[in-house]
Amino acid sequence: MHRALLLPALLALLVSLAGCVSSGGSRIANAEDTVDVIARVQDSTADLLANTRGLAPDQPVVVATFVNVDDLHESSTFGRTLAELFASSLTRAGIDILEVRMRQSLFIEERTGELMLSRDIRRLSASHNAQAILVGTYGRGRTTAYVNVRLVRTSDNRVLGAASTAIPLDRNTRAMLPAQW
């Protein structure tokens, strides 16, 4: 009698586990799941600030649009959203964030946002008196977007802190990425 119940129980367990693939203890999203990107960014910001050295609390930081790691001249809704979420999270942590889009001296490309390349850091620093710039990249795997973020000191381009996170791709995150991805 127990064998008759064991087989259906094992099948039910296998079916329920088929929808959950785990990697390092974190569940990879199914199409129906919604990933809490805000919570992941907040965790990544805490990690970034925990390992950052040399950031003056009374001097501003500029946040640049996150770019595609395969093409540093390209961003997306995903990259612009990441920049916004990191700016909010840093502000909540007490970091003085300078909103550069309110200034006319920074040209903002309509489709890419305020891209920040290393050659522009000194120019931006001088015009906005920023001590550091938060820069980031993202790359897409099959089921996950990998996000890397760094705080770069503007005076000498030294990395003051860095963090990385993996964001499972759900319907929302996929919709923010370019169609060809």
From TrEMBL:
Ranges for domain FlgO = 46-171
- Signal peptide start-end: 1-31
Tell me where on the tree of life, at the top rank, the source sits: Bacteria
The family database entries (PROSITE patterns) matched by this protein are listed as: PROKAR_LIPOPROTEIN (PS51257)
Key words, A-Z: Signal
Positions the record marks as coiled coil are none
Name of the protein: FlgO domain-containing protein
Q: Which organism is it from?
A: Modicisalibacter tunisiensis
